[in-house]
Amino acid sequence: VKTPLKQAATSQVVLTERQPDCQPLTTPPKPKETSPAEPWTPTSNLKMLITAASPEIRSREQRKQLSDSSTEVLQAKHCLQEHLLGDKYEKSQPSRKEKSLGLLCHKFLARYPDYPSAAQKSYICLDEVTEELHVERRRIYDIVNVLESLHMVSRLARNKYIWHGRHNLPQTLQALKKVGEENKYIQQIQMIKKREYEHEFDPDSEKNEETASSLGSSEQSEMSFVELPGVEFHAASVNGRKYKSLRVMSQKFVMLFLVSTPQIVSLEVAAKILIGEDQLEDLDKSKFKTKIRRLYDIANVLSSLKFIKKVHVTEERGRKPAFKWTGPEVLPNIQDTKLEATSTTCSPPISESVPSKEHCSKNLFPSKGKQNFTRHSSLIKLVKSIENDRRKIQSAPTSPVKMSTSRYLFLSLFLSQIQSCIKYVGLHWAILFKQFFYIPENWQEITCQSEEMQMKCALSSPEALPEPEPPQQPTPSQPLGVCPASHSSVSLVILPHPHSGVSYAIYLHPSQAHTVTTYSPGFMLQPLPCANVTGIKSNNSKVLNKITTEEGDNQIATAEPTKLLAAEERPEMKSETSSQRCLKRSQALQENNLIKRHRGDEESLGTSLTFFPSGYLIPLTHCTHGTKADCSNKERAGMCSLQHPTYSSPITGVIPMTASELKTVNIPAFHITPLNIMLSPNSVPAAPVLGNSCLSSSNASSAQNPSSSALNFMLQHIGLIPAGVQVPANPVLQHVPVSSQAESTSHSSGNTNVQEGKVGTNILHLGPAGLKFTFIPSFQLSALKETQEPQAVTESFFRTPGGPDSGSSLSTNSDGTERISQGTLYIPQRKLEVLED
DNA sequence: ATCTCCCGCCATATG
DNA sequence: CATATGGCGGGAGAT
């Protein structure tokens, strides 16, 4: 609530901050260096203030309030000075620092609200900005590019950008994190460090090159811009040039933070990784320097955003500049509604969702330009319909479903899938579902609860890979080569939204659509045995140098609770399997041709199927949480964060279970009765080209996001799956004991009789169409069995590489600043507290 | 000396 | 073709 206000105020001040006569637009003469001996006049006082404040500004951003107030003071002084002294006395020479990109960015950001409401859609006119901020255009580009990489702005046209604020942040970061994981950045970092380490003794040989290339070659030769559905680049044509290098670099940089466990990245490492991606081993000195320069540029902007802050890592080599992530924590890939779900009622406030309907669709279809989507109105209708459902349900007396746990879980999961589909997938699918499924009146309610269940399931999977996982010792249960290229034909890129399942994009490679019939990219929620959990404690600390970090600035180390909060949630589940996932990526070229190929394939496929759910985007975020800014606010650490731990970690006791106890949560495979649905060609939406389509992401997605399984389900169901085809179990689950013995069947809408502890084949007759599903579930509810010792798991999670007694990973310097040793798990205090419960 | 990173030339992309 | 973008790296201020 306060944020907006503050912002408004700030922007005002800042806008007027710059003295009109201050400096000519041209670079002021450098001389200055005024007489050192300055009398204690108001002016000198001011100067002091400026010099004193200036350097800290960036770092001080930590404490928003403080910062703002000081800034204002500063500015006030400034004005005062002006009035008093007028022009004769040239104001303090801008002194490089006052022209820093960071400061500039600060001003830039001050002009716009963090969470612009639908109404106040703010456009950014570069001309105005450059003028008002008194800067060269070039600089603005730097800022805007970085912001664009975070989807905080997007280009509309020449000189025109639109401001999104932080609305997209959760999605963006989540997406970036995912991509980062898929990119094996963790390993790459490891490798760089390792090489560095080995270089000490064997400075000459590039023996490790093989290692590098082995990892590097297979890796994505080129990763393009990560887009967000609904925020795509307007000029689709642009999508495939070397351009936006800064943008991409920025994204990658952020990815590094998001994937590394102590969220600290040194410039050196970052630069190397970012370079290494393009040119293999081009230890070109100049190139490196340039990269560093750029990283500084980016870092400055990110700092202004308070996403990172400068620190220093000290190791044998000495003190190296690095940055620490202090931005919003990326939430685990869980369904939305969790927040609501925690409360007794699961239905989100209607008042919020209704008014933003318009906005919703607006965002969905980026307005002008060729409409990439053509079902504007229908989608609105869909949204409306969904909201109506909500309304009904809300008003309706809630009658908690009574059923056995297993059955409940089963059913709720299923319903949840439906819900997800309807919510995210889009009109056609939604219609199909509404048409063919019988959905209980209180399906929402059930679903909400089920999502909680899902979360539990999902969390139960030990996807935690702390920090240094020696690449050479794969965990036994690790599904290596899980995604054969041939099977990766369906590229499913899902960008979930933590709070509200905004903007999901489904990306299907049409040319290979047929292969879908034989492959179900992970049709399970969160499989994976917990075997991994035990293998989590990582060692291999050898490669890691002891690193301590210290606050880059010498600000008072006021124990900022918010900071801790922000930094916490940390030891959350990191997809271990992700590191093993195939990294196949479609080329930009393919992407560019995507649409065309769509057409062609449509024809070639003939009647069999013409359905390319390539991108229905329903930014429900804006619909249901439009005004939830306060919660997702950057300072959200408080309330929201407090809740996250409950879901973000398997060790918080949500599903307390020991590794041995954790069995399987196997989502049923489906036997699908034929269902031929024909969709008119024009029902095929244009494919939103996602800059980055990871073919293997389907696995990742499904593993992390229940919704993806729903999508898979639909893909199959819609007709991509021939009659009677038995969807092959996902390789990931191979080791899972899928018992499919008894077959208790039941007919009647939604009335399965999955019984606790009993596994069986169930057939569901759903809806008037008589759609028949054969479930071959194997629910082993043991997964949900409550354990009495969550603590055990906890400990195994947080064992430090050096051993249980290697000391706390968090210590304090004499000056009160944090000291973080790399190679150990960074366990924020907050987290520990939570865990202690 | 090293860390930072501003400045603005100039190649490209856009319209 | 005129502009808008933005890659790039020299070199200077900050430490």
Any idea of the CATH class of the domain at 101-198 and 242-325? Mainly Alpha
Average pLDDT, all residues: 44
The tally of strands reads 12
What integer value in Å does the Rg equal? 27 Å
Name the shape in a single word: globular
How much β-strand is present in the residues?
5-15%
Q: Give the CATH architecture of the domain at 101-198 and 242-325.
A: Orthogonal Bundle
CATH superfamily of the domain at 101-198 and 242-325: Winged helix-like DNA-binding domain superfamily/Winged helix DNA-binding domain
CATH topology of the domain at 101-198 and 242-325, which one? Arc Repressor Mutant, subunit A
- Derived structural class: alpha+beta
Tally of helical runs: 30
Organism: Tachuris rubrigastra
Biased composition (Pro residues): 465-477
Biased composition (Polar residues): 576-585, 806-823
Keywords: Activator, Cell cycle, DNA-binding, Nucleus, Repressor, Transcription, Transcription regulation
Characterization of the model:
With 837 residues, the chain is of the alpha+beta class. The protein has a domain at 101-198 and 242-325: Orthogonal Bundle (Arc Repressor Mutant, subunit A). It has 30 helices and twelve strands. Strands 4-6-5-7 form a four-stranded antiparallel sheet. Strands 1-3-2 form a three-stranded antiparallel sheet. β11 (810-812) and β12 form a beta hairpin. α4 packs across α6 (137-149), α4 runs parallel beside α12 (285-304) and α15 (357-364) packs antiparallel against α16. The longest helix is centred in the first third of the chain and has 22 residues, at 64-85. It is globular. The chain binds a DNA duplex (15 and 15 nucleotides) through α6 and α12.
